[in-house]
């Protein structure tokens, strides 16, 4: 949810009973991040859900130390690490009793994150928006469960309550959902981005490392509008996740394979209600099949 999730969507998610998260690079400065976290802490107090901060722990992130200091100050209940080892965050987060979940795209990375002390592993699987993996969500959950008994979260094309139920049945504790919330009323996505998400389907996606150096799922029309040749995106550049967001990133839009479920701009609370209904219906179907 790079440049998409901010305080409004995080607060709305927590109030709706789920976990709302945002990448700390969505803030241009540490001062802005401090202000965001101050507001989120105040406005999620007593909410049925939680909030989470997503940290880029790659070595190119020059602001990581500042972001970690703010994590220690504001104490998000959950910290998610991405594009690097969870090790830099673990001591600071565990010191106040928080949980660290580590994004992983392979079994090898999952084993490394578990060895580093992560409380949970996030299986970033095929179909995920933005930086994505290549493994089937169900296969990935199974392989992580073969060696890890902590929290397992899975993301990749999960767009409705049935997919949430299927993930839980397969062994996951939690799911990542980004694409389903891109067009949420509280999202920071531009009107044009929301309109493209609503109109697009999975065939409008391309997965390539050519933009950031890491394989990511992009909306083809946004790349074309920015002057890219979608059929020849070129080689991957060096990975660099430092610095401030530029106009380039505001115009290049990511999404995952759950696009089909996004049909209108809706408030977060309405999306969560729909997901809950779908989840309950899916487990009712499973229960009926067991009886027959």
TrEMBL record:
Q: Which InterPro entries match?
A: Aldolase_TIM, NMO
A Pfam family reported for this protein in Swiss-Prot or TrEMBL: NMO
One GO molecular-function annotation for this sequence? nitronate monooxygenase activity
Any keyword Flavoprotein?
Answer: yes
Q: Which residues cross the membrane?
A: none
Q: Answer whether the UniProt record assigns the keyword Cell cycle to this protein.
A: no
Q: Which UniProt keywords apply?
A: Flavoprotein, FMN, Monooxygenase, Oxidoreductase
The family annotation for this protein states: Belongs to the nitronate monooxygenase family. NMO class I subfamily.
**PANTHER family attached to this UniProt entry:** BLR1330 PROTEIN, NITRONATE MONOOXYGENASE-RELATED
Q: What is this protein called?
A: Nitronate monooxygenase
What taxonomic classification does the UniProt entry list for its organism?
Answer: Bacteria, Pseudomonadati, Pseudomonadota, Alphaproteobacteria, Sphingomonadales
